[in-house]
Structure formats: structure tokens, C-alpha cells
Amino acid sequence: MEKLLAQKKLVPRWYERFPRGVPVSIFGLTMAVTQLSVFAIETAEDRRQAALTAQTAQAVASGLERRSNANAAYLRSSAALFATQQMVEAPLFRTFIRQLHLDGRYVGSDGIGWAMKVRREDIPTVEAILRQGGSPDFAVRPVPSADRPFVIPVMFIEPDTVRNRRAIGFDMFSEPVRRAAMKSAERTGQPTATGRVVLQQEGQSTDASGFLVYMPVFAIESAASSRTLRGYVYSPFNAQSFLESSIDVSHLGGAGVRLFDEDAGGRRLMAEIATENGSGQRVRRAIDIAGHRFVLEIEAQATPMLSIMSVMSLLFGLLVATLLLVLARLLTQQAVEDRIALAWFEQQSSIRNSLTRELNHRVKNTLANVLSIVSLTRRRATSLAEFADSLENRIRALSATHDLLTQSDWGTTPVMLVVKAELAPYAQDTHRHLDIDGPEVELAPNDALSLGLAIHELATNAAKYGALSVEGGSVSVRWEMAGENLARIEWIERGGPVIDPATRRKRGFGTELIEKIVAHELRNPVDLSFEPEGVRCTLLIPVRRRGDFSIRERRS
């Protein structure tokens, strides 16, 4: 496992570098695909709607043209019959028209009428004849001006209704729109429609639109090259009635229909079937009714912003995108956590190796210290019991400092804790005074062991021969920084027995232990002096950074 971790390079993969960006990108991509799908669906729906609207427009246009063509056929038949007659009288006209229209079905028009061309000087005679023939109120209107050589008034119209009687006597040639259509019909010899007009049948109403279709009637002459206009067979159409009768509203599917008259003057609305819900697609189609251009407009119903299929696709895409977002987030998060775990395992392996090497080093140093302690203790011991007691106490001193180092994970250890741990057996004695004070200074593991051993030896000798051996004695342990990376620790005894410098080594103060082992480990000389007032010992201990010793700090 360790070999695999050592061989594996813990380089973050591209998706691990962006644990939030990758899921968001996948979500965005999925939603983009969903939006493209919705766009395609809506485009197809718009095309379908356009096709349906165009189909509706074609059906409506066909219905209108069929109506106009049927009416044109009736007008041609009537013109052919009337052309053979010397005089178109009321009985003949009514009989023929009633038989022609088959029980009054006038294919969307108000009927069929006869307008005869009358010279201006013959107007009184024609009015008299018609008044005697059953139209007592017949009169040509409006009265023609002096420069008008003829008039073309409405003589008869079927069906004979109150509405149609309003048109009897009206000179259609007096109105410009009608006159233009009549001249065009005379010139072409074909049924010709007018533009937008207000029919005489509408009475006082001026907003009802309509149009007329004229078919000229010529007198039959022997010379084929000459024609004499006798009048016009015509049909008046109310535009709204014509539109409604030409289409089946139930087949519109809610669409709206508008009929416009389009000429040089622009486009004018003539009839309309309103849509149930407008503002949908619009389709315009030009239709020809008796040679005149009309424009048919179909307005589809307004459709929702999104069709049902688009909404379902959008919701499904949102669901899939959310699931992919969550899945991608979980996978990237798991990948990041796995990488962190691998890095942690690699770090733990490195720490274990470092701790093993550190432990070997510590054990070697400790065994060397123990061997030195054993050697010095044996050299100074006078009996086996004394040797065992001295050795046990010194080993205990090493153990106490080891406990402190273990608690700090073999990192730095404060001087205060080392001194208090070694002087703990004497701290509860009220007859002896301990003064321990100094700034917060932390020591490396080896230096802490050496300091602990030195304090133990000084305390043991003080308890046997110095200030701690009598009541009222005092020991002062103070330290301070003697440089950037050096601390000075000073041990001072007062109030103990008077010391004879000549006999200090014989009294077992452990000077060899302090001066040899401790000084060697601290790499600085130890100043140990035996003054009459008491022992004074000055130690110089190097102070190094905490990170140099606390291996586990690398985890952060």
C-alpha cells in the first residue's frame, strides 16, 4: 500500500479542480439541450399552426370564390336571356329570376336586379310606365345634371323585399365606384365587381360595407362589330352576409376572418368574423371576385407561450439536469474526498516513517543517557542499595520528562512544565520555599530531557545536602531569554547548610552528571558553583521553533 501511495502522484484531476463548476456546467449543458429541444418543438408547432392557418385561408378563399363564381354564372344566364328581349318587363324578370335561383337561394347576395340604360329625355316616360306597372313611387334619383346624356336606374330586383325596394330608382351611374365597375364590365363583357360601397338597401346606415357585381346586357345587332348597351344585370352583396354565408364558422377552429377591399386608395375593412382569442398568426391571401382584388386575412387564435409538449420537455429536462447536477456534485465531491484521503494516508505514512526514525534516535539518546547515569551512579555509590535508589530516582526523572514530551507529541515543551514536574515532590512542603518564574519558553525534546535531568540532580542534592534539607530553606529557579535563540536558566539555593567548597564532590551533588551529560546534550557549558550561601547553577539552553519538532503539524 505504501509503495502504491509513493508511486501514485496525487495531482488533482481536471474535474477535481472545479468541484462546483463541473456540476453547474453539466446542468447548464443539459438545460441548453432542453432549450434547443423546446425551440425545435415550438418551431414545429409554429409551422403546424401556420400550415393550419394557411389551410383555413385556402378553404375560406375557395368558399368565397365559389359563391362569386356561382353568382357570375347566374348573371351570365340572365344577361343571355334579357339580350333576346326587346323589353325586360317585370313579369318576365320576376318569373325568370325566381326559377333561376331555385326557391330564393341567392348565393350570398341580396338578390339579382335589372338596371336599364335610359336616355335623359326618356326618363319621364320610363317613370310613368313603371308607376303604372306596379311601382307607384318609382322615380329616378338623384336627378341627373344637364350634361348627363343617360342614367342607369334600378328597375327591378328580386326578391321583392322592403330592404331591396330601397334601391328601386337609384341611378347607379351617378356614383363613381359603381360607374367605374359598370364601364369596366361594358368594356370586357364579363361580370365585374365594384370596390367597397354602401348599398342603397342599407338605408340610413353608412358603416355597412358592400359591393356589387355587374353583367352588361347588349342588344343583339346584325352587325357583329357593333354593340348597343341596354343595361346591366347585377347582384348587390352585403359584405358581412356574403362572408358569413360563404364559410362554415364551425370549421374555423376559433380563427378570425377579415375581408378587405384593396385598391389604389389602400386597404379598407369590409367584413369580419372575430376570433375568440386573437393575436395569433395571420395569413393574408388575395382573392379575385368578378375581376376585383379583395384581400382575405385569417387570424389564428393566440397560442400559449409554450405548448404542452414544450412544457413537458422543459420540466423533464429540468428534472434530468437537476439529477445530473446532484450526481456530478456527489461524484466530484467524492473524488475530492478520496484525493484528500489519499493525501492523508500518504502523510500518515510519512509521519510514521519519520516517527520511527525519530524514535530510533530518541531511544539511542535515552539509552546513552541511561548508560552514562548508570556509570556515574555506580562510580559514586558506596552500596548496592544506594546505587539502586540513585539509579531509580534518575530514571524516574527521565520518565517524568518523557511523559511531558509524549503529551506534546514530542514537540516543544515549556520550561515551566519541566521544572514543576521535577520539583513536584517538594512543592507541598510548607517548611521549604520554591520560587519558580520566567517567560513562556519552549524547548526541543532532547533539551527538555537534559533540563529535566539537571533539575532532578540539583533538587536531589538540595534535598540531601542543600536548602531543601532544612526548614526555612529556599530554592529559586528563574529563566530569561539570553538571545534570540538562547535561554538562561538559573538555580539558586539559600538558607541551607553552609557548604565547604573543598568537599562538594564528596557530598554527592552529581556534578559529573550535570557537567558531563547535561552540558554535552545542551551543547553549552554549565556554570555550577558552590557558594557558602548555597549552590548556584546557570544553564544555557538553545530555543528552536516549534515547527522543527512537532511532526504532526505538517498535516495542516
TrEMBL record:
One of its GO terms (molecular function) is ATP binding. The keyword ATP-binding applies. Keywords: ATP-binding, Kinase, Membrane, Nucleotide-binding, Phosphoprotein, Transferase, Transmembrane, Transmembrane helix. One of its GO terms (biological process) is signal transduction. The chain crosses the membrane at residues 305-331. It comes from the Bacteria. It catalyses: ATP + protein L-histidine = ADP + protein N-phospho-L-histidine. It is found in: Membrane. Pfam families: CHASE, HWE_HK. InterPro entries: CHASE_dom, CHASE_sf, HATPase_C_sf, Sig_transdc_His_kinase_HWE. Its EC number is 2.7.13.3. Residues 84-252 form the CHASE domain. SUPFAM superfamilies: ATPase domain of HSP90 chaperone/DNA topoisomerase II/histidine kinase (SSF55874). GO terms for cellular component: membrane. SMART domains: CHASE (SM01079), HWE_HK (SM00911). PANTHER family: ETHYLENE RESPONSE SENSOR PROTEIN, TWO-COMPONENT SYSTEM SENSOR PROTEIN. This is histidine kinase.
